Amino acid sequence: MELITVGDAASLLGISTKRIYQLIETGRLETLKLGPRTTRITRASLDAFLAERIRAERRDRGIDIMSGGRRNPTGHTLPTRARKRCVPD
Question: CATH class for domain 3-86?
Answer without folding.
Answer: mainly alpha
